[in-house]
Every structure is written in structure tokens, then in C-alpha cells.
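Pinned message: reference record for Putative cytochrome P450
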Amino acid sequence: MTTTAATSVPPELDAGALARWRDGGGKLIELFEAARELGPVAGFRLGERRIVLVTGAEQVQHVLAKNPDTYVKHGHRAKVLLGDGLLCASGEPWKRQRKVLHPQFTGRGIRAYEPQIRAAVAGIAERWAAAAATGEAREIDADLRHFSLEVIWRSLTAHPLDPETHQRLIAAGDSLAAIPAFAPATGEIADDFREANERADVAAAHAIALAGEAEEPHLLAVLLKAAAELPDYTERLVRDELLTLVVAGYETTATALSWLFLLLDAHPEQRDWALAAGPVGSPERAAAIRALVDETLRLYPVAWLMPRYAAAADTLDGLAVEAGMTVLLCPYLTHRDAELWPDPEEFRPQRFLEAGRRPVPGAYFPFGLGPRACVGAQFAVREMVLLLEELLPAYRAEIRETPEEVGYAITVHPAGPVRAVLHPQGE
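Predicted structure (C-alpha cells):
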């Protein structure tokens, strides 16, 4: 990639292509797919707005990892619910907030919360055992949302999730999930979130009250300690951080798990492969299950679209990016690039265990890249692996109702319930 002065601007879709896109229903992913055909850095216009789409691995690395101060977050579409929490913060406040939370989400930090994760695993295992005994079909996507929400609630408060709080948080999460993928980043849609914010406020106050009673390690203790010691950590910021961890954290993990069970239903041999990799509790089995997770996140990344704002002019792949442009990175498309991933549409987790076949920098970024990568990425993967180590040997989920469409909002998700019959399995 050249670093000399840019000689041209990114190629743009012409008016005819945009018209065909609108006439075909105007789905964003189809617009992005058309733009990608122009190259790893391409453009299009939405009204007067000039958009640059970046899908090449080298170019992704340039934007997210090498030049994060040039390509910055400029507000966030989730701010109407999550306020100034880590997901939506920027600049110096973001740096201070990440410094507070980051130690909790390292490998060492996560170990303190494993008892809470395992308690949530036991809860879903009990529900699935009851369903398997009766043969009833369950909406396993709802079970997986409950599991993921239980994990983060227990980790925050060291208490189990009660039904009333569960409903409040699910409602808030549903409101967040309904935000369009390419929505305004400010208060333009705030009126639609008044009720969701009220529910979230009640849940946050309840969490803080519970945390004050807890003796085990819990994440809220970290936030409350920061509030006592740091002037920037106001009561409102504690609320925003808490809700960011809960609402933004549970939906992404639950969605990834829903995709994984859909993929295993279509490819049952991959479940058998993972379980045959080694005995219960072995590093070999854990690695194979982790590969199932990694491959699911390749096909259905946690954040399928990552907007950035060009704070200064730059040269990207020899092309001029002007200050003020919106730059979109789309791991969903980068992860399906045949030049980066052989047979990209195929669900093949073994690719993550092949010697010498590590993805090139910028080719795989389901949780983002660089300093703005998701702080909870290791936590999310760990909770998924622990759940799958328990459920995969015990049950085969036969999908009885598969969503016909894929939804592209803040997450890329199955657009409808995932209903399955759980068949007991023995090793």
C-alpha cells in the first residue's frame, strides 16, 4: 500500500447502480456488496453524504490498527440508550474508562468471574435437560439470550438474575437491537427510547443495590470504586457503563451462539469432529470448540459494520480520503473474501487449527481491531466455550424452525425465532 500523495478518490457506484439498489428494496448489505466489486476501498453516495467502504484486509489494518487517531468514532447510534458508556465514548474519556475496565477482561481477570459463568451454564443445562426429557421444542435463541444475560448480570452483581429484571433488560436490549445499522449517532431518535431508558434505569439501580450486598468479586465493585476515586466517574457514568456491559454484551454473545447452533444443525459432522478432538476437559477438545466459535464469528461477526469518521485527510491504498468523510468497515464482507478465505461461504472450523494458516492482519476482526477492539472479546469467547463444553456432548439440537432471512441491524442476526428439539446424547 502506497504512502505517497493520493492521485484519485475512491471509485463510486454510479447513479444507475444506486437506482437498481433502491428499486430492489434498498438493503444495506446489497449496497455494500455492489460497492465491494469496485475494489477494497470503494464509495457511494446517500443523498449528499459521501461514504467510503473498506473491505480489504490491508486497508482494514491501516484504518483500525495503524491510524486510529485519524479514523475515529464520531458518536454512536447506541448512545440514545447507553449514554457515555465505553462503547459510545471517545477521546480522553474513552481512554480513562477503558483503563478502568480492561484489567477485568484479561485472561487473569476473567478467571475471577468463572464461577458466575459456570452457574449460568448450570442453569441453561437444567432447562435443556427438562426439555429433552419431554421432547418439547424450545426457542433456543431465547434460552441463549437468557444465558448470556445471566452471565453478565451475575458477573456484575454476584447475584442470580431475577425474572422482573430479566424482562426489563430484554426490553432494553430489543430496543437497542432494533436500531438500524446505519442510524443517526445523536439524539435524533432519542424519543423512541424513552421507555427503554426508564426500564434500564430501574435495572441499573437494582444492580447497584445488589452489588452492595455481595461478598464475591463483581464488576460493579470496580465501577463503584472508580466513582469514589475519579471525578469523571459520575453516578450517571456508572449507570452507562453498567448498561453497556449488560445490554451491548449479552445480545452479541447470544446471537453468535444462535448462529452456531444453526450451523451445527446444517453441518452435524462438525459437532462430531469437535467432540472427537479429545476427551472431556482436554485442551484438544477446548481448542476444537474454540474453532467452532471462531468460524461462526467469521461468518457472522459480532459487529458486522463498524463506522468511523475521518478526522483528517488521509491516503488509503493510494486513494484520497477527505476529512469529514464517513468510513465504513464491514467484517461480514471481509470475512467472506475468497482471496483471504478459501471457500469463504463454507462452515469449516478446521481452518482455524491448520498449521501456518493464521489469517493475515486485517482479515479477521469480529470484535474490531486496534485500540478500539471490544474490551469484552475474551470474556465473550470464554463464556461461549464453557457453555458449549457442557451442552454439545449432552444434546443435539434439531432445528425445527429456521428463520428465512438474516437481519442486519446493530448485529447480524437470525430474523426470527430459532426453535429446536433437544435430543439427549451420550459419549
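Pinned by admin. Summary line: The chain has one domain: 15-424.
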